[in-house]
Design brief:
Layout lengths: L14 H52 L28 H4 L2 E2 L2 E8 L9 E8 L9 E5 L5 E3 L9 E2 L4
Antiparallel strand pairs: 1-2, 2-3, 3-4, 4-5, 5-6
Length: 166
């Protein structure tokens, strides 16, 4: 007759031990996930500010290189389909930013020909989170002054709080 070996413990975890492990794991996840999401929001916001700076620099280069004022569209600053840079496709910003959406933010560009001479005299560029509260919390704005401004309440404007220069 076979008798069970009472000296060797059972293999694996008991149900109570498994529940304790799962409780500890879920508690750690409840603490970590909001911090990870906030870190992603901060990274998206930093990327939006960097993109605004990139466009401002590209605008200065566009003006000097082509002598036709500011770019008429954001896409104009992007890469050409073929060949070298032209006033219609200056190759000063990447294709993703030129399309108007990058790292959880949408970019809205408006160029203005104030005196009707065909040259864009000014521009505004807004960056808004694609899903406010999930892809970012701040709204950003810049124009030909190259001052980047932000708002937490909604789309930023020329009257919004400037971010400190870096």
């Amino acid at each position: 007759m076979l008798r069970p070996n009472r000296l060797r413990p059972a293999a694996g975890l008991t149900l109570v031990e498994l529940l304790v492990v799962m409780t500890v794991f879920m508690t750690l996840m409840a603490i970590a996930i909001p911090h990870l999401m906030r870190a992603r929001d901060i990274a998206n916001e930093a990327s939006a500010v960097a993109s605004l700076r990139t466009v401002s620099t590209a605008q200065a280069t566009y003006q000097q290189t082509f002598g036709v004022g500011y770019a008429p569209t954001l896409g104009t600053l992007g890469p050409p389909a073929g060949g070298g840079p032209t006033a219609a496709a200056a190759d000063l910003i990447d294709q993703v930013l030129a399309a108007g959406s990058k790292a959880g933010y949408s970019f809205f560009y408006v160029a203005v020909d104030a005196d009707g001479d065909g040259r864009m005299d000014s521009f505004t560029l807004r960056a808004s989170p694609i899903v406010p509260g999930q892809t970012g919390n701040k709204f950003f704005f810049t124009d030909e002054t190259n001052v980047i401004r932000f708002s937490l309440a909604g789309p930023a404007t020329a009257a919004s709080t400037p971010i400190p220069p870096q």
